[in-house]
Amino acid sequence: MQAGRLRHRIVIQQATVAAPGTYGEQALSWSTFATVWAEVKPVSGGERFSMGQERANVTHEIRIRYLAGILPNMRVQFTRDDVTHTFQIHNILEESFRGAEMVLSCEEVDVGASTLPVYSTLTFAGDTNYSTCAQNSTTLNITGNMTIEFWLKHAATVSATECVMSKYGATSDIQSWHMDLSTAGKLLFVTRPGLLTFTTTAAVIADAFWHRFVIVKTGTVVTVSKDGVDVPGTGAVDATMREASAEVVIGNRWAGFSDFAGSLACIRIWNVARTAAQSAATATEVTLGPSYAASGLVAEWVDPGTGNLTFPDRSGNGNTLTLDTSVTKPTVSGEYATLPSSGGSTP
């Protein structure tokens, strides 16, 4: 590394998240993790385009000497000409993996608008509690390829078939798809109009830890991955799904049966079949936002909004997730600054 390139003094900060209130409301505070010399380099629009849509929100690259302990979702502050710039860290690349230097892929953010991408969890007791997506656009009427991504932590054994999420109406003519857990802990993805089913050959629920799932439908083929590893399965689904006008329901199917018992976080729906590389590139991103709408993101639910009874659709498509207001409504956790570790404990 040429030391002369590191001419900018930056402050790397980490967030401290206050204990959650009744509905997960809380404050964030920042403390200095390290003060180091760096090279702060804007990423041009042409460079971003050449990287593809997956990095369209990266605005700067910050090069520093290797420093252990830096994590995505920390932030960097850099003051120049009496103006302080704040950058959210999205990805960390260790050059040649030699422990010499690191490149932080960052996005400049308006700290007055959003200080940190955070997420909250929805916890279901398996007792007729669910949240619905008030479909404000037709973007959720997906009839072809699609991808569903989410973090899941199951509370216990599956005593009865549980529905994780669905686009499932009161009558069969508005049922499009649903995703269930069987009593054997296997994951099922079912489509209409043919009522065709894909089932994993092995259980996907084996512990009470967090795991990241990606379900991809490509024509009649479904693939499931857990923590980035493919899970074998059998069966095929409908190549063309019904364009149902039903809402997307999180936590059960229509009419309150087959209720999910566990926690979900960072739920995303795409109208394209994403590749494994694409999913891996955004696996550590808390919020993708409307910049990913052009690449097929139609809904993203990560944190509660006003009154803590809605999860705004961060994709910009207006598909607000509205929580049930009954006594058995899902529990909204506090906000977290970093995603859980696969197979790790509760965040």
Task: List the keywords.
single chain, 347 residues, mainly beta, Thrombin, subunit H, Jelly Rolls, 2 domains, nine-stranded antiparallel sheet, 23 strands
Overall description:
With 347 residues, the protein is mainly beta. The chain has 2 domains: 3-109, Beta Barrel (Thrombin, subunit H); 121-332, Jelly Rolls, CATH 2.60.120. 4% of the residues lie in helices and 40% in strands. The protein is built from 2 helices and 23 strands. The chain has helices at 45-51, 276-281, and strands spanning 8-17, 28-42, 60-65, 75-80, 83-94, 101-109, 121-125, 131-133, 146-154, 162-167, 177-181, 187-191, 196-200, 211-218, 221-226, 229-231, 233-234, 248-250, 261-270, 297-301, 310-311, 321-323, 331-332. The strands form 3 sheets. It has a 9-stranded antiparallel sheet, with no helix packed on it. Strands 7, 9, 14, 15, 16, 19, 20 and 23 form an 8-stranded antiparallel sheet that branches. A 6-stranded antiparallel beta barrel has the order 1-2-3-6-5-4. Strand 12 and strand 13 form a beta hairpin. It is elongated, with a radius of gyration of 21 Å. The two termini are 37 Å apart.
Summarize, please.
This protein has helices spanning 45-51, 276-281; strands at residues 8-17, 28-42, 60-65, 75-80, 83-94, 101-109, 121-125, 131-133, 146-154, 162-167, 177-181, 187-191, 196-200, 211-218, 221-226, 229-231, 233-234, 248-250, 261-270, 297-301, 310-311, 321-323, 331-332. With 347 residues, it is mainly beta.
